Amino acid sequence: MAKTGIEYVCVAELDEGNGAYTNGFHVGPSAKFTASPSTNTVKDFGDNRAVVTDTSVTTGTISLEINEFENMACARMLGHQYDQEKDVVTCNANDQAPYMGVGCIGRSTGAKRYKAVVYRKVKFKDPSDEYDTQQEQVTFSHTALEGDFYTLEDGEYSIKAGFDTRDEAKAYIDKMFGIGTGAGTE
């Protein structure tokens, strides 16, 4: 199964008390979504050989390449102050990014062409600001947003659900993140 695309990157605030999501929204067009798990690899030896091996996921990193990182999304994902009327984000060294759920729709050539991919608990870091001068040819650049993902208390860290249609995958993410309804589900 080959992966053929990504769309509909969404985030929502995680309520750590009940595992539900609120205030979900579509981040905007995104060029890349990368999640890299870190594993805790431990071997138990007996009789001069490895008898048991544990390779459980402990944490990981998420990288989003966003075509245009809007000020509202920046403030909500990174815990900064946002003045909607003026479209101004004010960043303070004491700001704390909230834990978020992050999801996207991945396309593939498999039996279920659309995958709703959700990472349950993510904390993002402020991205680098990078602008280049326009030269003879226009070049496009994206905002690379990095974050760490963690396991929930029950050990869950991601969900990958397969669907036949894009609309089914989108509805799954919308329901989980409360997009369009104001309240998410676990």
Task: From the structure above, extract its key features.
10 strands, single chain, eight-stranded antiparallel beta sheet, 186 residues, mainly beta, two-stranded antiparallel ribbon, 2 helices
Layout of strands and helices, then pairs:
Layout: E1 3-15, E2 20-26, E3 30-46, E4 49-66, H1 71-78, E5 81-83, E6 88-90, E7 100-108, E8 114-124, E9 143-150, E10 158-163, H2 166-177
Antiparallel strand pairs: 1-2, 1-7, 3-4, 4-9, 5-6, 7-8, 8-9, 8-10
Question: Would you mind describing this structure in some detail?
Answer:
This protein is mainly beta and 186 residues long. The model has no long low-confidence stretch (mean pLDDT 90). The strands form 2 sheets. Strands 1, 2, 3, 4, 7, 8, 9 and 10 form an 8-stranded antiparallel beta sheet that branches. Strands 5-6 form a two-stranded antiparallel ribbon. The two termini are 29 Å apart. The protein has helices at 71-78, 166-177, and strands spanning 3-15, 20-26, 30-46, 49-66, 81-83, 88-90, 100-108, 114-124, 143-150, 158-163. Strand 1 (3-15) and strand 2 form a beta hairpin. The longest helix is centred in the C-terminal third of the chain and has 12 residues, at 166-177. Helix content is 11%, strand content 51%.
